[in-house]
Amino acid sequence: MTGALRELVRSPVLVAAIFIAGIGGTFQYGFHISVLNSPSLFIKELVNSTCQQRYGRALEPWELSLVWSFIVSIYCIGGLAGTLYAGHLAGKYGRKTTLLLNNVVAICGAVLMLLSKTALSFEMIMVARLLYGINAGVSLTVHTMYILECAPKRLRGMVGVSVASFVSMGKFFGQLLGISEVLGTEEGWIWLLAFSGAAGVLQLVTLPFLPESPRYLLLDKADKHGCEKALRKLWGAKKNPGPEMKEMLAEHAALKGVKSHSLVDLFLDRNIRWQLLTVLVTFVTLQLCGINAVYLYSFDVFRAAGIAKENLRYAALGTGLCEVSTSIACVMIIESTGKRVLLFRGYLCMAASLALLTLTLYFQKFVSWMPYCSMVLIFIYIIFFSSGPAGVTAPLPGEIFTQSYKPPAFMVACVLNWTGLFLVGMVFPLIVEHLDYFCFLIFFAFCFFSGVFVWFHVPETKNKTVLEITEDFKRMHQKRRHSLQSKLSSIHVISIQSSVSTKL
């Protein structure tokens, strides 16, 4: 057991906070990404039954496809709406209160899902999906802010990875509960889609026992006593919160008289330009790294490897379980390895896996054992995705921005995430239709570029305060700027000397 993990185990309230915040937080986001695959036929039957009863006719295939696309994509629209308000709500009412109120939205969505079949109304499913999206949009932002602000500096990386671990768990539970032996049946599918209500109720009854975010209490509410009380409750009475509070007070002094910044301030402030670029690059690549393409082609690869059609769903569960287990394993290594290394290594190894996967998919028509190589590459890709970008990217805005910039930074990150998810869902089928498995080369370019960007422009954040990371960003790019200026000056001097010698 590593020192950081031992320290985490000695803080049971912090461990409880990780699980309670996660189950009603990013777990919901991951769950709704994967859960619609199983009940899709039952939902389409409900849509046709509703139209048959109301209008006396079943829908044409293109009409049914249009309605289905809207049911799927309205989740992203809700997520975008939730994200736009999450930062404001978290700043005004606090992280804990925002998470508590957010559960009411999930419960309302679950009630609508349960009633949709009885009421013979697919519109209720649409509204429920919209509410689930709003809930996920808020939780994706506020859960990350809350849990990072509750963790001590030494454990921040480990705790931050838990955000991605709960996304992976949500995806896996969506797949697991959706199989026909559990809730993926004609009678059980509405309970499957209403499962988020249970997760919301669980967080609603347990979160009140946890304290508010200590950083929020001190930096936003100037409540020093409340902050110290919250830290002692989270970390245990034996741990001295003095050094962490001193660092928070240093940040508070640096930000004294500085108001909470807006989205416009975030884009106009040149001092945080590289932090903003880091968020833009990493969150765009998180959606455009090809993970959805890999999951889509996994069925074809498993089928070519000889797995029976009726067993493909269990093979898909294997990929989900691989993502969950790797994400949890990432918790153990992040404090010793460092986030910059995990991001850089993850992107480049994912790029290499995608390039090789393109080749193996091309040659599997000619070589009988090539599908097994493709299968291995799929699992390698998922391992590096889960242990790198998936685990490190989500908490990044909370680590590289000061308190006054966190709400707009998380807003930008989550807007990019939801917009990317929506566009991939709409455009990806067209890309596959025209490029087939060569679509992986597009994702290869994104992964490779992001890996190079991280190596040259992003400093290590492990065991550092926000102010120290801010200084590292400045130092890294001032050094590069001075180096570039000196090179340009040298070139200019040489050109002048050449000119003078020519004249002579």
Biggest sheet features: none
Helix segment tally: 24
Structural class: mainly alpha
Radius of gyration: 25 Å
- Helical coverage, percent range: over 70%
- What is the string of helix and strand elements? HHHHHHHHHHHHHHHHHHHHHHHH
Could you name the ranges where pLDDT drops below 50 across 5 or more consecutive residues? Answer: none
Based on Cα principal axes, name the global outline: globular
Give the SSE map.
Blueprint: H1 3-9, H2 12-23, H3 26-34, H4 40-55, H5 61-93, H6 95-119, H7 122-150, H8 156-177, H9 189-193, H10 195-206, H11 214-220, H12 224-235, H13 242-254, H14 263-268, H15 273-288, H16 291-304, H17 312-337, H18 339-363, H19 370-387, H20 389-392, H21 396-400, H22 406-435, H23 440-457, H24 466-503
Task: Summarize this structure as a short list of keywords or feature phrases.
24 helices; globular
